[in-house]
């Protein structure tokens, strides 16, 4: 048979709440570790008195009773595990694991039995419910009635606060059953009563949470905080941990007491009691006990008369009474030599202490995070300035803590500490690379792979190259399409063929033509490209080469099927996240291999793009030449049709009317179109034709006479 048994996801019933954790049974005893608080309950094998197996709401449960009256309940077992547990109890604890079922008749009358720290309400021989008397905060009596009040449970949505028992009168003389019931409850209940004298008193101590100055009275079983407004009684059993932390100024000390359950004031819960001391304060302390009692109770840890620094005396007394170790900062030292880091959490500034097994932040609000509950940490760039960075911690339960505004000089020390504790760093790269990037902190996040950002950069680079190529091509097309010189040549040829014999009209036209090129050039530059600009934004050519993929995208395409096979049913978004994690964790040598493939693909793309751009330019040149040739032919055909009008011109073209019509033409009229000279000449010929119509047959006959 195995020497140990381990069970995960077991629930321990404590003060009405179910706390999950891990249960381990060994030859030495039973150990339960709370997943939430990290608190460990250790039951020695020699202390076990009884074990009970029964069916409960979460499956099956195990109830253990010790010889000193304590009761421990663990739920979450499967029915099939009974045989294994029963054999283990017989072999190692010499106990029979008894099976007892709860009564489910629904009756509300029965018998009350007190056994150790447990009140059991039974019907016949079967228990209906059980109440741990340590959960009772107050017990009051009335006529034939006893009322039990319970501690509030902050972890549960609904808490049982009160139970009333009706106790029928009996015929026995001299015995009040109600008082007897109440005394049995009070003897085991967690009712704090300040009876007797305090062991010692510390006056007017500065307390940060809850805020104020309090007198602390040390009693054998609890701590009494007495202030001007509030009053708290803290049982030593609720103290989880003690911390003694030096302030960054080296002149003050924090003494932190971790509490579970917390102390309450209205709706406010205080999970930590934080005291602030000055190192210069000294005190002489005398315990309210004789020397024999001090020696017997504290076994040399305390003496009747002590003196020293105030913080040392308080911490020494608390350590002896609570019987827990005091946690101090480890070997971490920040940039300034202090054992803490100045930072901000939420809206307040405070100090973050890296400990040997966790982090603690003081003071508002105080936070304690153990290493074993951390999923990963992350170093992030500061949101407002590059002179600081953020330190993020995410727990396995999904809670995220962000400590911001940490000085950049603390980065190296904090990273080395986290790395030495082997915590999972979310944006981990090579250690040397991270230190190098820290020297230029503005680029500290470059080593964190961002697939989306890399793809956007690559696409932007390709678009810029395509824009440069298209702008070169469109510029050449614009020059060819809107070249004033070529248009002037066409117009000159057309009007040379249609010109009349008059020399004066030719001189006038040539004078106007001399002034036109400058005006035309200005119009071409200002107006024509704007009309042609939308045409340059054409759809993507399907024959154009495809832009190359980045190294990450090449790797992703090659690894996508393998990731799917390793994680069946994975969604697209989860696949992208998983791929990013794998790429980030890949070694530098493997990444260089994909970088080389990406570089080869980029060179091939540039080569294909050059060939494509040369071919597209040649095609555009041929297209423009064919358009010009066709346009020229159309103009020549049109000019031949207008020759007939030109033959009817008479010598009156040299008359003052012709010169007057020319003088009325403004510059705007002349330069309003590229072919304005041609249109003006045609208008002149049409006007002259209308003024002197062709002679009729009668006129020609009389003329011949």
From TrEMBL:
Per the record, what is one GO cellular component? nucleolus
Please indicate if the UniProt record lists Coiled coil as a keyword: no
> Compositionally biased, Low complexity: which spans?
497-507, 649-663
DNA repair: present as a keyword of the record? yes
Its subcellular locations are:
Nucleus, Nucleolus; Nucleus; Chromosome
**Which residue stretches does the UniProt record annotate as biased composition, category Basic and acidic residues?**
532-544, 634-645
- Gene Ontology terms describing biological process: DNA repair; DNA replication; regulation of chromatin organization
Domain annotation HMG box: ranges: 545-613
* Top-rank taxon, per record: Eukaryota
Where does this protein chiefly localize? nucleus
Q: Which family does it belong to?
A: Belongs to the SSRP1 family.
Q: What does this protein do?
A: Component of the FACT complex, a general chromatin factor that acts to reorganize nucleosomes. The FACT complex is involved in multiple processes that require DNA as a template such as mRNA elongation, DNA replication and DNA repair. During transcription elongation the FACT complex acts as a histone chaperone that both destabilizes and restores nucleosomal structure.
Q: What is this protein called?
A: FACT complex subunit SSRP1
Origin organism of this chain?
Answer: Atrichornis clamosus
| Gene assigned in the entry | Ssrp1
């Amino acid at each position: 048979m195995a020497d140990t048994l381990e069970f995960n996801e077991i629930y321990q019933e404590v003060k009405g709440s179910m706390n999950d954790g891990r249960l381990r049974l060994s030859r030495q005893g039973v150990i339960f570790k709370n997943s939430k608080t990290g608190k460990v309950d250790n039951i020695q094998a020699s202390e076990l008195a009884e074990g009970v197996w029964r069916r409960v709401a979460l499956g099956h449960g195990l109830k253990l009773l010790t010889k000193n009256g304590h009761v421990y309940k663990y739920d979450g077992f499967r029915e099939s595990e009974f045989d294994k547990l029963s054999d283990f109890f017989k072999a190692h604890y010499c106990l029979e694991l008894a099976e007892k079922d709860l009564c489910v008749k629904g009756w509300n009358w029965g018998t009350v039995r007190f056994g150790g720290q447990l009140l059991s309400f039974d019907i016949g021989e079967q228990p209906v419910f059980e109440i741990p008397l340590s959960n009772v905060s107050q017990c009051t009596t009335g006529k034939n009635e006893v009322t039990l009040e319970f501690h509030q449970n902050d972890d549960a949505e609904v808490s049982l606060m009160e139970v009333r028992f009706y106790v029928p009168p009996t015929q026995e003389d001299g015995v009040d059953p109600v008082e007897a019931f109440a005394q049995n409850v009070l003897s085991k209940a967690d009712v704090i009563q300040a009876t007797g004298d305090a062991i010692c008193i510390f006056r007017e101590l500065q307390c940060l949470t809850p805020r104020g100055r309090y007198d602390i009275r040390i009693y054998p079983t609890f701590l009494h905080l007495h202030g001007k407004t509030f009053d708290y009684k803290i049982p030593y059993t609720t103290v989880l941990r003690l911390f003694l932390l030096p302030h960054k100024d080296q002149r003050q000390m924090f003494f932190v007491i971790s509490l579970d359950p917390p102390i309450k004031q209205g709706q406010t819960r205080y999970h930590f009691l934080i005291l602030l001391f000055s190192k210069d304060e000294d005190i002489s302390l005398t315990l309210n006990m004789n020397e024999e009692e001090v020696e017997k109770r504290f076994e040399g840890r305390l003496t009747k008369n002590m003196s020293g620094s105030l913080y040392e005396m308080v911490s020494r007394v608390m350590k002896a009474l609570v019987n827990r170790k005091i946690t101090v900062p480890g070997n971490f030292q920040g940039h300034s030599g202090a054992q803490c880091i100045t930072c901000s959490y939420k809206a307040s500034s405070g100090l973050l202490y890296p400990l040997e097994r966790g982090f603690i932040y003081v003071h508002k609000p105080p936070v304690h995070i153990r290493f074993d509950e951390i999923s990963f940490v992350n170093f992030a760039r500061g949101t407002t300035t590059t002179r600081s960075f953020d330190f993020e911690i995410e727990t396995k339960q999904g809670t995220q803590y962000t400590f911001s505004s940490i000085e950049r000089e603390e980065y190296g020390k904090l990273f080395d500490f986290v790395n030495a504790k082997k915590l999972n760093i979310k944006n981990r790269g090579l250690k040397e690379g991270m230190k190098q990037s820290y020297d230029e902190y503005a680029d500290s996040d470059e080593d964190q792979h961002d697939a989306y950002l890399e793809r956007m950069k690559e696409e932007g680079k390709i678009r810029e190259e395509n824009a440069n190529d298209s702008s070169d091509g469109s510029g050449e097309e614009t020059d060819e399409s809107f070249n004033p010189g070529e248009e002037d040549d066409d117009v000159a040829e057309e009007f040379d063929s249609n010109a009349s014999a008059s020399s004066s009209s030719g001189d006038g036209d040539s004078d106007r033509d001399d002034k036109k090129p400058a005006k035309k050039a200005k119009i071409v530059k200002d107006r024509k490209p704007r009309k042609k600009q939308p045409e340059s934004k054409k759809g993507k050519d399907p024959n154009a080469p495809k832009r190359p993929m980045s190294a990450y995208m090449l790797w992703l395409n090659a690894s996508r099927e393998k990731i799917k096979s390793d994680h069946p049913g994975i969604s697209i978004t989860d696949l992208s996240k998983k791929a990013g994690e794998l790429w980030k964790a890949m070694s530098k040598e493997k990444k260089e291999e994909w970088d080389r493939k990406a570089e080869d693909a980029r060179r091939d793309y540039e080569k294909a793009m050059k060939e494509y751009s040369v071919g597209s330019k040649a095609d555009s040149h041929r297209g423009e030449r064919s358009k010009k040739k066709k346009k020229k032919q159309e103009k020549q055909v049109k000019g031949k049709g207008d020759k007939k009008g030109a033959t009817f011109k008479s010598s009156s073209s040299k008359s003052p009317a012709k010169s007057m019509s020319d003088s009325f033409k403004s510059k705007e009229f002349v330069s309003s179109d590229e072919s304005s000279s041609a249109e003006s000449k045609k208008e002149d010929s049409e006007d002259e034709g209308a003024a002197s119509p062709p002679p009729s047959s009668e006129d020609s006959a009389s003329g011949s006479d």
